[in-house]
Amino acid sequence: MLEELKAQVCAANLALHAAGLAILTWGNASSIDRDEGFVVIKPSGVPYEGLCPEQMVVVDLDGNVVEGNLRASSDALTHLVLYRELESIGGVAHTHSIYASSWAQACRSIPCYGTTHADHFRGPVPVTEQLTPTALEGDYEVEIGEAIVRAMQGIDPGEIPGILVASHGPFTWGESAEQAAQHSIIVEQIARMAALTEGLAPTAGPISGQLRDKHFLRKHGAEAYYGQMQ
Amino acid sequence: MLEELKAQVCAANLALHAAGLAILTWGNASSIDRDEGFVVIKPSGVPYEGLCPEQMVVVDLDGNVVEGNLRASSDALTHLVLYRELESIGGVAHTHSIYASSWAQACRSIPCYGTTHADHFRGPVPVTEQLTPTALEGDYEVEIGEAIVRAMQGIDPGEIPGILVASHGPFTWGESAEQAAQHSIIVEQIARMAALTEGLAPTAGPISGQLRDKHFLRKHGAEAYYGQMQ
Amino acid sequence: MLEELKAQVCAANLALHAAGLAILTWGNASSIDRDEGFVVIKPSGVPYEGLCPEQMVVVDLDGNVVEGNLRASSDALTHLVLYRELESIGGVAHTHSIYASSWAQACRSIPCYGTTHADHFRGPVPVTEQLTPTALEGDYEVEIGEAIVRAMQGIDPGEIPGILVASHGPFTWGESAEQAAQHSIIVEQIARMAALTEGLAPTAGPISGQLRDKHFLRKHGAEAYYGQMQ
Amino acid sequence: MLEELKAQVCAANLALHAAGLAILTWGNASSIDRDEGFVVIKPSGVPYEGLCPEQMVVVDLDGNVVEGNLRASSDALTHLVLYRELESIGGVAHTHSIYASSWAQACRSIPCYGTTHADHFRGPVPVTEQLTPTALEGDYEVEIGEAIVRAMQGIDPGEIPGILVASHGPFTWGESAEQAAQHSIIVEQIARMAALTEGLAPTAGPISGQLRDKHFLRKHGAEAYYGQMQ
């Protein structure tokens, strides 16, 4: 079942690895079939070398395995919260990429210091609150998902396609697994540029809302004029 | 038409990508046929993988498409301002490369800290002023071009073959698309070295004008003795 | 003899090189056959290009060569101390990887700043004391091993699978040479993230013991639920 | 003539490029035949892609071309000073590698912060004085060579196989072109580690002379026990 989605999800996982964002087994991507209500996700702890579509695991939105012989990613429950709560998204990716994870470890959101950032995120890349001791003792991966959802309250996930989980690393999303993985690449780039920008100009501030919106809307929404007409 | 120029422009775009300066679709190179008054440029939002000369778009100096089925780069109007105003140049490149963009985001020109810089730029790599709110509301890409031209007033574009657009990233130029792309590679290198130099010597100052000119003129102009006789 | 172990040790050495942790001849990995009491290790000063299992050297736990025409790694005596004193380990790796060596040169242990670290190390990556002048004059490589063992006193090597030798670089271990090499890769990643974290948040502190243990125990021990059931 | 030496020099130049130390045409390696008194060196401004032994230029110690259709590297006169004054060396390499050049631009010698450094340099990597205005007006490349020789006075070039030219970049040497190129790789590594070390421990000092000598002499000289017996 869902052969095409499995191929897409496998390709997105491989893209994370090829881009250097996920070494060893440190990352996972998934996608949802909204009609079926099924999510396809990477199996847990399986290396990227040799990863193939048949290894992808199909789960329902409650986390029950629908198909697959392998255990789903240990982060699957986080993905599922995002699919349940952010209804416009079609794919999710998670990595421990160096620069984005360092911002996460610093428990800082990434300010919008330039147009590269604004082309893809219409504002800072947010960071979640720390989980409480009670949440850590609870259903941990679900709690992470809920911390993300709380931090995204009032924010359009189409305008802010990713977040940093405090002390952990980035989660990104998009219309598809491919786009979610691409947003992981983008978060890593802007995380790196932002760190360098602060080194070069310790008192740097974010760009104006006008410049930010000019760039974001050049690429997104009804007035976009970047790229080719579909 | 302009088959050779299309091949050169395509190759220059691929060179930006191969050098790691332009990921996803973040960069573009162009070249001008001064006799025809036509500019060949990368299409907008098309990935580098599989990019081929036939996809290049031909526009006139007013931005009218002369040939090509794809939309020209969204930065085409900036390129055109440069071709109109900097009459000695034959190629333009634009990237969001990490280090040069970080200097741009810091809104700082890159001081000439060493001979690697001076071999290619006879002075700092300038940074433009920020666009005004009015300019941002206007013909944005043209305004960027004009901000570049203002910052280049009184400077020989053959001696300073590139600039940083504030909060954005580098534009470079040269006699050809190939040389423009090479200058993008060079700006990234000297941007990186300059950031490291400041880390190692926070009070570092630029090299002397004499050392700078010695190096620049060793490679450029009538007295150059670097490289092979043409 | 020990053909399979030689192949594993050779592969682990090549993995260090492939991961960019060991250039030129700067690194070595070994493994022990606990039944025989023999250790297989890389030969000294032999480049990774073309390294093959037949070149591996077999020594006993006192350092006597049991098989092999080449001299064992100059660090062999350090490996042997670790095998004698840390009885649970099956493989050892040593590199001069950039970030981990820089922490070692700074004579600092790596604080546990995030979950990437906690997934693999249940606490800081320790750093040894400096060797005394007397130790430096003595059996140097044995003294390094003993400094590591002293720093590991009261620490489970399964929970802290590596250490930094002050002013020198990382040694890591694991159940096998492959796992030891993997821990070298991990130490380099977390060393890099930790340096960046301090740049972004100079007053950053380690994550809570609860979050650290949650992550470590998600991957290790009886309650682990990461990865596939064996 | 000197076919073998040309092949070695070509290979050393390609090694600089393959190691990422020399992009575009930014680097050169040479070697000397002491019996003939001839030096083989890279031609000026020729890219590394496709570089072949036949393109190497043969010059005598006064800089006269003995064989070759191409102009010798513009840095040839610097190499020749080194061959004349440092009689024990057989090869020279020069690059604009990122980290070593940044230390050069900071006009700082690289302190010996760890054993990776001490394994190859028995003390700091020195930096030359700045050239005087008069020297800059004179025979520039010869003046650079003489500045290097002055900075090396009283230092054994076998113990300190390279130097930073202030505001410029590294020159390294060795018994052969291959070894000179290898020392360029090493200088870049230790330059990078040293910069990171200072970031992690701003008050870091060099390692003790005893530890430094222990490591240097483990690899070099009569008592060396690293590597295989020749």
* Number of E-type strands of chain A: 7
Q: Unreliable runs of chain A, pLDDT <50, ≥5 residues?
A: none
What is the global morphology of chain A?
A: globular
- Helix count of chain A equals 8
What's the end-to-end separation of chain A, in Å?
Answer: 29 Å
Indicate the multimeric state: homotetramer
The averaged pLDDT of chain A comes out at 97
Spatial extent as radius of gyration of chain A: 17 Å
Q: What helical percentage do the residues of chain A reach?
A: 25-40%
Order of helices and strands of chain A: HEEEEHEHHHHEEHH
List keywords for this structure.
homotetramer, 230 residues, alpha+beta, L-fuculose-1-phosphate Aldolase, seven-stranded antiparallel β-sheet, 8 helices, 14% strand, globular
Question: Overview of this structure, please?
Answer:
The structure is a homotetramer of 230-residue chains. The two termini of chain A are 29 Å apart. The radius of gyration of chain A is 17 Å and the shape is globular. The mean pLDDT of chain A is 97. Chain A has one domain: Class II aldolase/adducin N-terminal domain (L-fuculose-1-phosphate Aldolase, 3-Layer(aba) Sandwich), CATH 3.40.225.10. In chain A, strand 6 and strand 7 form a beta hairpin. Chain A has helices at residues 3-18, 76-85, 98-105, 115-118, 133-137, 140-151, 177-200, 209-219, and strands at 27-33, 38-41, 57-60, 65-67, 91-95, 162-165, 169-174. In chain A, helix 3 (98-105) crosses helix 7. Chain A has 230 residues and is of the alpha+beta class. Chain A has a 7-stranded antiparallel sheet, sandwiched between helices. Chains A and B meet through helix 7 and helix 8 of A and helix 3, helix 5 and helix 7 of B.
